[in-house]
Amino acid sequence: MNKSRFPLLKRRWTKFKNLKRGYYSLLILVFLYFISLILPLFIGNSAIIVKYEGTYYFPIFKYFNASEFNQTSRIKKEFGKVLEGEANYRWLKQQFNEQGKGNFVLLPLYPFGPNENLLDEIEGNPPHSPSSTHILGTDDRGRDVFARLAYGFNISISFAMIVTFFTYLVGFIVGAFLGFYGGKIDFFGLRLIEIWSTLPLIYVLIIVSSIIKPNFLWLTLILIVFGWVGITYYIRGEVLREKAKDYVMAALAIGAPDFKVIFKHIMPNALVPVISFAPFAVVGYITALVSLDFLGFGLPPPTPSWGELMSQGIKNTDYWWLVTSPLAAQFSTLLLIVFIGEAVREAFDPKPYIRYK
Amino acid sequence: MMKLLEVKNLNVFFFVDSNKIGDKNIPSKRNNIKKLKNKIPVKAVEDVSFDINTGEILGIAGESGSGKSVISHSIINLIPSPPGKIMGGEILFKGVDILKLTSEEIKNIRGKEIGIIFQDPMVSLNPVLKIKSQINEAIMLDKNLTKTEIEYIAAEKLNEAGITDFETVLNSYPHQLSGGLRQRVMIAMALSRNPSLLIADEPTTALDVTIQKQILDLLINVKENRKCFSILLITHNLGIIKKICDRVLIMYGGKIQESAGVEELFGNSMHPYTIGLINCFPNPNIISSNRIMEIPGNVPDAIDYPKGCKFHPRCNKVMDLCKNTEPELLEIKINHFVRCHLYNKNSGTD
Amino acid sequence: MEPINTNNILIVKNLGVSYITRKNIFSLKGNKFSAVQDVSFSISKGETLGLVGESGCGKSTIAKGILKLFNKNLNEAEILGEILLNTGDKFVNLQKLKNSEMRKYRNLIQIIFQDPYSTLNPRFTIGKIIEEPLLYNTFYDKKKRIEKVKYIMDSIGISPDKINSYPYEFSGGQRQRISIGRALATELKIIIADEPLSSLDVSIQAQILNLLSDLQKEFNLSMLFISHDLSVVKQICNNIAVMYNGQIVEYGPSNEVYFHPKKEYTKLLISSIPGIEENK
Question: Which of A209, B76, B341, C105 is the most exposed place for a label (fewest CB within 10 A)?
Fold first, then answer.
């Protein structure tokens, strides 16, 4: 007998898995996100392992000076001079190969970093168009576009998921409280929420950005503080609906205290319809972040972000890759999430479809 | 007496996916029509045959899952498809097989020749339209009538249904009327096109017992006052059947288990299920002990019917034969059919 | 203070329940709709009182009023009168208690509802459902709780092996048994059954009715049985109270009320029952 602890969930999961488009999108997305968490292993300008004179170094964890490896510059003008600052591992690899002393450098698959200025290494003026070494070219500061896109992916999704989670958390607590107690609490609470929701997000962001330099933490905080309102209405509605059901009255009748009734009984049932909104909320927040970065009110430079790339591209449409690549990345990501969201919604839908002749 | 409706070997199956969760087959309905072959047929109605004569009230009695509502829906072809499908059989209405009609032709029968009222009038009536619009809509379907003619017919129908204050009722919305009034309106609407057959699917289940009496009396009245009019009454309440029906079919597990005239059935019930069912209704006229004779076990889920006789796990007269072979429906006495091995002289007794 | 018979478990005196609907929470005047007026009855140890009436007569409102189970919404419910519950050593007036104070006594008086499908939380196993009252009302440890749950499952006719099954695996009648089991978990003295049979199949109704009867004897319970079906009420109840429009119109032993009804409404109810046997 294979009894799952959450049979309803299991049934929905089976149904979800049968919806191939959503299921595969989920697999792809989870895979990509997982890779993005260990991205420096694949894309980055820090070598994974360096063996120099018998010792192993791990530059992805630690900063090493170029002098540590006796690295010399490879720029034409300064050839042979001792390099200053951080070691350049691509050059180091070439240097070791030339020296042939048995030292080696293990570089990531795509050895360019998102914040790395490549002006010294490429001819011509930035932004550079796509080439065989830089698949998507560089941006106006000579940074590799592909690397920036890849790191931006992690930031976008993490941001959106964190904001979604906390807005749902706050929204749930408030919505459940209002829905369960009703009466004056509900009345005044709703009015306060309505007032709060009229504050325009953009203006607030502009004002806040002028006072404090926004970073990841501040942005998430602001969006949570203004975004929790949306889901509150739905949760309140669900709580009101569940509250009318017999099992809630039964729980009160057997002596359960109020908070137990809310969190133990009502919450699991009230959350279910709301879960199907979550993917679309994530979509919304990714777009929000891109828009904010585009306008310049988002994450501070030099954080790699899609919106910032797009704003560069808009300024001069000759550099088409600066617009199309982040656009394509955003489009594909959102498409995957939308597929997942649709599949979740269908898997959670209790009614089958019926047709009468 | 002419046969108004003849149902022959009706089979209605519902095709569902099964999800094995735990150790029980839980059917889950999905919209994936393409994978028909992966689905399990649930036999909601199997091999059902009966007739309704003109001027007769036939009752179909059974509990939930017995298939009685599916029969009424099949007659007017309202089986949701997918997942349901009428797999075979004939339904002859005035000699014409209505299962073979096109959707256009069915529209002439449904509502016009065969009227139907359901259990909950609140759900059957459109809550945002006044009664006036709804009943006029039905009347207008037949011929081109002037406004006054329509109003006259509407008032006449409501009157027939026992509503005297028709002005107020016509101008009300469904939620402003009581349950009894709503059901009367439903009856009026169902009769507005002068059908020959009225199907009443649990018409009084949602009503109070005093209102129920009024509605049942109304149905009897309507039948008396019209020529060539029959009623098919579907219910789980044997008391109602006894009160107004001429003949009755007892359904269990999608099949007819016993059928007879009402007096005969209540006086000489044969099938153990019928006997058990009758005993389940507490008889208030007897000063008895606190216990009622009960039928043990549960009404089976259509996806998990037992082998052999569908009632055998709950039967107090079960024999070995019953566990393997399903009995045939046989005429044991004149016009009294029973599906039970106890009465089948041909099947070997234990 | 008039002497109260300690053989009584529940005494209701002049109970009135009104719903106050205000246009909005600021308007001081509201429309008072009186659902129950001046209802009095008493139930002694081991007795079953049947409350019969049609929809809207107020019988379910009485149950909710006794247990203070109204939804906290814009509409408030006002409860008047005395509701005296015998706690073993004294009588407590439930009407005067606030919700938080009431929790102490909830284990003595439990309720089962009409709809077996919504009365059990679909996310809990039935073991947890039956165990929950023990968590709030006793100090039993886990082992003793499980033991008690299994004992109850045995009494209600569900195999204790199914302690980890979920409600969806059971039929309507079985779910009703589980909800009865939940009510029995505490050391209760009186159970209120609010139309417990109305959503069940006919053959199952008889089972549940017999079960309630048996459990009453086994656990020495009193019962307030609310129904619209007079024949069922007569079967299981010692006394019957007939309700109409919020008031009790007739009250007496079952056989008295059924065979010698005094009020017109009672006579109407009796004659409306489509009986299997011919009515007199």
Answer: C105
